[in-house]
Design goal:
The structure is a homodimer of 337-residue chains.
Chain A (H helix, E strand, L loop, with lengths): L1 E6 L2 H13 L4 E6 L5 E3 L2 E3 L1 H11 L16 H8 L11 H15 L4 H12 L6 E5 L6 E7 L4 E5 H7 L8 E5 L10 H7 L2 E4 L8 H6 L3 H7 L4 E4 L2 E2 L2 E2 L4 H4 L9 H8 L10 E5 L3 H9 L4 E4 L6 H24 L8
Parallel strand pairs in A: 1-2, 1-9, 2-5, 9-10, 10-13, 13-14
Antiparallel strand pairs in A: 3-4, 6-7, 6-8, 11-12
Helix pairs in contact in A: 1-2, 1-13, 2-5, 4-5, 7-9, 11-12
EC number (chains A, B): 2.7.8.28
Organism (chains A, B): Microlunatus panaciterrae
GO molecular function (chains A, B): LPPG:FO 2-phospho-L-lactate transferase activity
């Protein structure tokens, strides 16, 4: 079985770990958001790809959710001693080696997808059935428009999130480079060949949003043979992780599990999803979304550990398959077989 | 008083520390060899400048003689875990921050001399009368030709010294880029304005040699008003530090304190030096060099500590001044006053 997962960083990587447990025999390709990527101190940093790689490869600091276990911060402190800015980014010593290798390969002309594959030869050596695909080899960066008192200015998403802790209101968002970006090699083919496509519970605005905004990816999802099953990261009207509640207003979407599902939309209505999973605490949202045409089920979505996550993914997938089966009986979709 | 010192790394920085002690009121400019510089992992590394900066700024690991005190090697080990070569270079975590700052400034278009001044705002903040000048802002690299069994090949000096420990015979030497190099801003002016010029006991082939080979620097030394006093790094037929004995044969110079002095040459004979200092154990070399026209004195040249070093520098300078005074009486030099 070929599974494709769309995902961001911290939550996304936990979701993929769960999917790995749920379907141990499947080939899993993860299309990872790269719009959080940033260049600092001359180093190209890909937070979501790295979080995914470290998590799946067993190198993550699982308490913090990002960065390496047994990390130290000597280079960062030393850069600060030189008075070099920015000093707010969590640049660990072990992590830095990854950025050095990446930056040097990029400077040598390798595309990000090839660099990611090279880095994964270390981290995913023993998991050949798991591969990470950056959404694009092109440089795309999410910038957030804030008012800092002296007027509106656009800052990199990392600055908004890491330095400002998403405190200022996000007035607008710009995805620099997105219109000129193309999907990385393997991305569209993976979607076309998939038996199952999962949209992880990552941030709909700055994680899943950029992936879907890469020209070609939305259309590939819409035309995919595989059922597309989405999972809400909003539980009880708030994100489990991160700052989606601070950013959803920018795209005019309510901080609500039904609203996010309907933002992705139901496939028969031109949207992306065959089925939507919300938390068991959001039964009302499930009814709202279903009534609005998006088949939605409420299950326990808290990712306590890979086993729990695997359980709700299997249950979500079963629900998605039943939705597809029903619709096939009604002649609404072609039989992929 | 304006003092200019020509120097390399480990020995050179100890010599400069001694000069600092010897003449606490003087303005000291150090013209530092940059032909050892190397780019590794995308980082521009200037070993001699860094050793000088860390030593004079109190950050050196004084037992090892290079690199930072309380250094760690986490990034280096992590690069090795990625299988990234080369792994033989001693790239410490604290040291790496220096290279990151330097590389980013160079990439932004600042010349090495400006980068060095910027880095020194941290290290030499409290020593405004001490400044480090790279010999050149242009990229110059010493390559050593060896025979590795399958034929002759040229390798970077750092590979010869750090990886191969100077074991293979050096068959030849190439200073890549030297002909096109120009002296860094401030270098020629410092030599012209100096009251005293000291040639440190650094390697005559790969430390002092490249400085003298930068077009314009040799002529500036020859025409300088100041007395030029040189100090031998060869004691009793062997270098105190480093691998000068492995490289002197390449330039056809005997591993001998008199031979090195005569290689620099006496000023009246078109050479560089007014006076040459050899170790008290090399009294025969002192006689040989003096007889050959280079006024030479034997004193204890072992750099036990800055105080000892200061003592022999003062004694060498006094000797140099007496040689100049004598020669002025003989009408061989103009009075600088």
């Amino acid at each position: 079985m070929q599974i494709v997962i769309l995902a961001g960083g911290v939550g996304g990587s936990r979701f993929v770990s769960g999917a790995r447990s749920a379907y141990p025999e499947a080939d899993i390709s993860v299309i990872v958001n790269t719009a959080d990527d940033i260049t600092l101190h001359g180093l190209r940093i890909c937070p979501d790809l790295d979080t995914m790689m470290y998590t799946l490869g067993g190198g993550i600091d699982s308490e913090r959710g990002w960065g390496r276990t047994e990390e130290t911060w000597r280079v960062k402190d030393e850069l600060a001693a030189y008075g070099v800015e920015p000093s707010w980014f969590g640049l660990g010593d072990l992590d830095l080696a990854t950025h050095l290798v990446r930056t040097q390969m990029l400077d040598a002309g390798y595309p990000l997808s090839a660099v990611t594959a090279a880095l994964c030869t270390r981290w995913l050596r023993e998991q050949p059935q798991l591969r990470l695909l950056p959404m694009s080899d092109d440089r795309v960066e999410t910038h957030i428009v804030i008012d800092d008192g002296s007027g509106r200015r656009a800052i990199h998403f990392q600055e908004y999130w890491v330095r400002l802790h998403a405190v200022p209101d996000a007035l607008d968002m710009v995805r620099v480079g997105i219109d000129q970006a193309t999907a990385a090699p393997g991305v569209l083919r993976a979607l076309a060949d998939a038996d199952l496509i999962l949209v992880g519970p990552s941030n709909p605005v700055v994680s899943i949003g950029p992936i879907l905004a890469v020209p070609g990816i939305r259309a590939a999802l819409q035309s995919a043979q595989a059922p597309v099953v989405g999972f809400s990261g909003i539980l009880g009207g708030a994100p489990v992780l991160g700052m989606a509640h601070r950013l959803l207003p920018v795209i005019g979407v309510e901080v609500d599990a039904a609203a996010v599902g309907l933002h992705y939309g139901a496939r028969p209505a031109g949207g992306l999803l065959d089925a939507w999973l919300v938390d068991s605490g959001d039964a009302a949202a499930a009814r709202t979304a279903t009534a609005a045409g998006l088949p939605t089920r409420a299950v326990d979505l808290v990712m306590h550990d890979p086993a729990t996550t695997a359980r709700f993914i299997r249950s979500g997938v079963d629900f998605g398959l039943s939705v597809r089966a029903q619709r096939m009986q009604l002649g609404q979709v072609r039989d992929a077989s």
